[in-house]
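Quick entry, no commentary yet.
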Amino acid sequence: MKTVGYAAKSEGAQLGEYTFERRDLRDNDVEIEILYCGVCHSDIHTVRNDWGGSKYPVIPGHEIIGKVVSVGENVSKFKEGQLVGVGCMVDSCQQCESCKEGLEQYCENGMVGTYNGKDEHLGGHTFGGYSETVVVREKFVLKVPENIDAKGAAPLLCAGITTWSPLRHWKVKKGDKVGVIGLGGLGHMGVKFAAALGAKVVMITTSPGKSEDAKKLGADEVLISKDEEQMKKHTGSFDFLLNTVPVKHDLNPYIGLLKRDATMVLVGAIEPLEEMHGGLLITKRRNVAGSVIGGIPETQEMLDFCGEHNIVSDIEMIDMQNINEAFDRVTKSDVKYRFVIDMKSLKN
């Protein structure tokens, strides 16, 4: 079926209107009219080929909220008109140990990304949510609570689950002292989730100007990481650190904040990092780990939790026609804290 989206046709090109084909509905598929799509920094990296391997034309978007238009014969979980979401992946092998455990993001045969993944049905690569519609296998469609703001729910499908998954895997609980490093699209969700889980939340930032915002989001305290005295005061006191900084940086000052046996998890910096001092790990049996999004069961758990606690992302709405300006603003950290595209603007 013909669909209109916004694509970058080559490396260095800006996004512009583009007509392409979606697959016809199969027995296990759900066709979704896209209402809103969040703008993730990964979209920008892929469009600009920052990580290499981008396939053009690129239609980004993996924070999708929409309404079900139609369902295949074998679909039982969804019905027409239902509010649903699609996140960072649209398929996986379903046979490996990771998939069997509901950890499709770690599929040993490679999960299929919502965009720039291998399209097994039409050939070529997948196209994302900067478009009117999407057709997705039922298994990879998520129920969105009707009581939360649908626009603010869009970034939950990436920024939300990226921060929720490590908090759950490392069993963050009421009373734990949790540090969230970096206040941006990921960090602001980490603060909200950790606070809702009952942790004592410390926002760790280089920018004193972010203190007021951090406390509004749920942080109990703000630690300015450039202040040596403040850092010294918190040495060896954290049960868990969620590091959302998206660029190369020095981990050593943060490792020193961890208690014995405690963990810092990286979710932002997908690139080489500065050297770590082994002594900081060895002398306190500390851990540095990584995490990427979450599986479908965990993502649904996160959405249900958001419904119970009325949690959504802080967003700024834009029209599709302003996406290139939005990309520039994201790279300058000029958004609080996530752009969301109103897909009705595609029809204007």
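second:
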Amino acid sequence: MNIVEQVWAWLTNPENWQKNFRDPGIPTRIVEHLSYTGLALLFAIVIAVPIGLYIGHTGRGGFLVVGIANSFRALPELGLVILLVLVMGVALALQAVTIALVALAIPPLLAGTYAGIRNVDSDVVDAARGMGMRERDIVWKVELPIALPLMLGGLRAATLQVIATVSIAAYVSLGGLGRYVIDGRAFGGVEGYAIMAGGAVLIAALAITVELVLAGVQRLVVSPGLRTSTVSRRVTRVRIRPVEEPEVATS
């Protein structure tokens, strides 16, 4: 039996989907994986979105977006987790993992929010000011709805990155689907490789599923006019050349 058949056998084994003395089961690991992801995204949204809204609306400190995004993306998440665990202690391993994942999620959220607000047509903003709207109302009622597609795009990118990286939680004795990757490596042998590959397949399948769900949510909450505006602008740029009729020779 080759490795593909062994992975399939492991994934379809009912015992792996139920709680037993060795493992709480795949469903429990998926819930743990999603809980770590949701916790990190929640803190990242609270930090990144307000900063992106302020910088995008005022135009002040735009260089911070580039600086923060580049610096946070350069951080090695696994090394950061190990360092934080050594400093904070094993008892605070969940907090250490959350901090590392928040640092990973902030750049796409911040960049998406900033880009969405800055790309709002200045004429629309000026018209809102001319109507007497306050700056806070302009942000929430004018700029934010228009910037929503790019903001959700940043959220989708951040979510995929975090889901793929949550596996590092297993390095510090936490749960999640990363447990199968770590435990399979420790188990060794062909069976161990099958467990590792099965865990990787589950992580990839979870990321694809969440991406499809977020894409559906984005389609529901974003106005159809905003979804088609980009396509409309591209269509208007196409130059249609008239078809020249062939010349008819006259005798």
